[in-house]
Design goal:
Bound molecules: iron/sulfur cluster
Strand content: 5-15%
Helix content: 40-55%
Number of helices: 16
CATH superfamily of the largest domain: Hypothetical protein, domain 2
Shape: globular
Length: 368
Amino acid sequence: MLASSAPMQPESHPQQLVEWFRVHKRDLPWRANREPYRIWISETMLQQTTTTAVIPFFERFLSRFPTLESLATAREPEVLGQWAGLGYYSRARNLHKAAKALHSLTEFPRSYKNLLELPGFGPYTARAVASIAFGEPVGVVDGNVIRIFSRFLGENWDWWKPSVRDRIQEHADAWATRLPSHELNQALMELGRTVCTPKSPSCPLCPLRTDCVALKKNLTAKIPRPRPRPAKEIWICELQVQIEGGRLRLMKNHSLPFLKNQWLLPAAGKKVQVPPARFHYRHSITKYDIFVTLSPKNSILKNHEYRWVSLREIQQHVPTSFVHKAIDLARRTDGVPQPRSLRQQKENRVRHPRSRVDPRRRKRQPER
Ligand code: SF4
């Protein structure tokens, strides 16, 4: 529900926030300078991924692609290989496309409106780069900013609705015009990531606490309300792991609705109403809950686009763990093991805790 319009906040709040940021900001690698290339890479990586998780990926990516030119002239498989583990591979593909487009320009666009023309630059990334790198007085709105404004103003908004997001954008823009926007926007992001966290915010440490409506009314646990989630689609999928002479057979995915146009294992799938009784593993990609069964050799799909890739280079061609789980399973069991029920899989995990998936993989971000 859209609540009644809140009065614009006094000058002192953004000022207090920026002063807090100057004292408490973390020393992060992308804050070493305001070079637009670095800001852009970091803001793209930080979407759907935590700051702590991004740091090693950012440093590795920047050491391989230290300049816009080095990224623009790289081959896509290498860019995807450097991105592996961050998930959401469409971000890496768009980053690469945008690097090529930027490389053909005489200078990095300085306004968010011009940045929006580039692949992968949505309103958040365009505003973040324009404000942090070039000081354009525009606000950014992401989950952190929505949470802070919702709580600070005491508004239990349907924040996922465009009309409400426009309202929040107006608040963010108003704050960004009063102070240096590169500091104000980073201050909001920092506050959301370290103090005004989704659960148990550290209100006694917050520079906005004296006028925060949610804190005064003891509503910080209720605001913002969770977004209603649509039910996931259940899919069954057969994958074929065919290895010959150290090379693996891949198929371009033109039929499955997830990981579209990516190189996967030869695959066939369909949407179902209930999960299958037996399967090899379960994998989640955005709204898809996928139950995977490995299929015996040569059992699926003719007339598709195939290629053979060296197993040593597989990460560059297929970064998704959806495929790596199948390869690991087939190699660990030397062929196609019997599919098992969910109960059997749970029992096995209890009896053989070491056979669980590598915990580093479990923490990976979902893909799309
Ligand atoms: S006082 Fe608490 S709830 Fe309010 S903005 Fe600060 S951290 Fe968030």
